[in-house]
Design goal:
Layout: E1 3-5, E2 14-16, E3 24-25, E4 29-32, H1 39-52, H2 63-71, E5 81-87, E6 90-98, E7 109-116, H3 126-141, E8 146-151, H4 156-164, E9 168-175, E10 178-186, E11 191-196, H5 198-201, H6 205-217, H7 230-245, E12 249-256, E13 259-267, E14 277-285, H8 294-308, E15 313-318, H9 321-329, E16 333-343, E17 349-358
Parallel strand pairs: 7-8, 14-15
Antiparallel strand pairs: 1-2, 3-4, 4-5, 5-6, 6-7, 8-10, 9-10, 11-12, 12-13, 13-14, 15-17, 16-17
Helix pairs in contact: 6-7
Length: 371
C-alpha cells in the first residue's frame, strides 16, 4: 500500500513510503508484527483467559476490532502498537502499548499489556524478556518518559516480574470494572545495560572500583580478599581497560538512573581451537541495586553480545548460592563442584561450581570427537 500526500493544489503528489514495521529482537525472543493467520489463535487465547481469569482479561474485544488491530500491527498509531512474541521462531503470545479507556495519559507516557497464549508457557521467563525488550525500546526509540503496566493485585507472578524489572506500584486505577495496581518506571530509573568501549572505561573506573570493593566486603568470592583497597581495585580495572582495548574481553555495564550499578565480563581471549567459546566472569552488582533484576539483565545482554560474536558456548564458575540460582533460572547447566577451590574474602575455603551454556543458534563446527 502506498501513502500519498498531495500538495495544496494537488498537482504534484509526493509519494511517501509507509513507515517501517516495528520489529524488536533479543536473545531467543523477538517482538514482531502480528500475522492475519494468527487472528483466531489470538481471539481463542483471549476467550480462554477471559473465562479462566477475568482479572487478566476483564473484557473481550470483538473480532472486528481485533482484526483492525491486526491490520495495523507493527505500526505505532497514537501511542498504540500490537506485536507478537516469538521464542525461537514460535509464537508464544502478544505484547502491546495502548491508551487505557477512560484514563488520559500524559505526553511521553506509554501503557503496556502482555498476554501469553498458553498457561503452560508461563513461568519460563518469556514475559520478563518480552517486557524488557518492549520497555527498553520505548525508552530508546520513542522518547518515553514513563512506562506503565497495570496488573491485578492478586497476580503475584506478574507483580514479581515487574518489580524485578524495576517497576514500582504507584497507585490503584479502576479500568474495565475492576481495580488494578498501576506499576510504573521512569526513564531515569530504567536500567541501561550495554557493552562499553575502551575509551569509556577510564571515567567509570572509580565507580567500578566502588562496586568491586562493595561486593568483596559483602562476601563475594571474585578473586580478592577483604579489605580491598581502592588502589588495588583500580589496578584491576586498568588491566580490564587494556584487555578491552586489545579485544581480549568485553565489559558490559548496567546503570540505574544514570549511575553504574553492575558489571560483567566476557573473556574472548581463547586459543585458536576455541573460537566458539568464551568465559564469563565478575558478575558484580552493588548491594544498593540488588533484587531488582540487574544481574539477570547483565547476563542477558552478555549472552546477546556473545552470540553476536559467534561465541555460542559459554562457561563460568561461582561460589555464591544466589548467583547459582540466577544462572540455573537462565538455563545454565552445572558441570560439577570442586571442594575448597578458592578462598572467600575472609580467607575461608569455599567450594566452586562450574556452569556451561550453549546459546540458541550455536552449531558445532563439526561433530565432536570423543576419546
Amino acid at each position: 500500500m502506498v501513502n500519498w500526500i498531495a500538495s495544496e493544489k494537488r498537482e504534484n503528489p509526493v509519494r511517501v513510503p509507509p513507515p517501517p514495521l516495528i520489529r524488536i529482537e533479543g536473545d531467543r525472543v523477538t517482538l514482531r508484527p502480528l500475522r492475519m493467520d494468527e487472528l483466531e489463535i489470538s481471539f481463542g487465547a483471549r476467550e480462554r483467559l477471559h473465562e479462566t481469569d477475568p482479572t487478566v482479561m476483564p473484557a473481550l474485544p470483538t473480532r472486528e476490532s481485533l482484526r483492525e488491530r491486526f491490520e495495523h500491527s507493527g505500526v505505532m498509531r497514537d501511542g498504540a502498537v500490537d506485536l507478537a512474541i516469538d521464542v525461537d521462531g514460535r509464537r508464544i503470545g502478544e505484547i502491546q502499548t495502548y491508551v487505557p479507556p477512560g484514563r488520559a495519559l500524559e505526553p511521553g507516557t506509554y501503557e503496556v499489556g502482555i498476554m501469553i497464549d498458553d498457561p503452560a508457557e508461563r513461568g519460563k521467563g518469556v514475559g520478563t524478556k518480552a517486557t524488557r525488550l518492549m520497555v527498553g525500546w520505548l525508552f530508546a526509540e520513542c522518547a518515553a518518559g514513563r512506562v506503565n503496566m497495570p496488573t491485578a493485585p492478586g497476580n503475584t507472578a506478574m507483580r514479581t516480574v515487574l518489580e524485578r524489572l524495576g517497576f514500582v506500584a504507584e497507585q490503584t486505577v479502576h479500568d474495565l470494572g475492576q481495580d488494578f495496581l498501576l506499576y510504573s518506571v521512569m526513564h531515569d530509573a530504567w536500567r541501561v545495560v550495554r557493552a562499553v568501549g575502551p575509551d569509556e572505561i577510564a571515567p567509570l573506573r572509580v565507580r567500578l572500583g566502588e562496586i568491586l570493593i562493595d561486593c568483596v566486603a559483602n562476601g563475594a568470592s571474585v578473586g580478592f580478599l577483604d579489605p580491598l583497597s581502592p588502589e588495588d581495585a583500580d589496578a584491576y580495572w586498568q588491566r580490564i581497560e587494556r584487555a578491552v582495548a586489545d579485544d581480549r574481553c568485553v565489559l558490559v555495564v548496567g546503570a540505574v538512573g544514570g549511575e553504574v550499578a553492575g558489571t560483567v565480563l566476557l573473556d574472548v581471549d581463547t586459543f585458536p581451537n576455541q573460537p566458539h567459546r568464551a568465559t564469563v566472569g565478575k558478575l558484580l552488582v552493588h548491594t544498593s541495586a540488588r533484587r531488582r533484576g540487574m544481574g539477570e539483565a547483565l547476563m542477558a545482554e552478555l549472552e546477546r553480545v556473545a552470540a553476536e560474536r559467534g561465541r555460542w558456548l559459554l562457561t563460568l564458575d561461582t561460589a555464591t548460592g544466589a548467583a547459582a540460582r540466577l544462572y540455573e533460572r537462565m538455563g545454565w547447566s552445572p558441570a560439577g563442584t570442586i571442594p575448597g577451590y578458592a578462598l572467600n574474602p575472609d580467607s575461608s575455603l569455599t567450594d566452586t561450581t562450574f556452569y556451561w551454556k550453549r546459546l540458541s543458534g550455536g552449531e558445532p563446527l563439526q561433530e565432536p570427537r570423543h576419546g
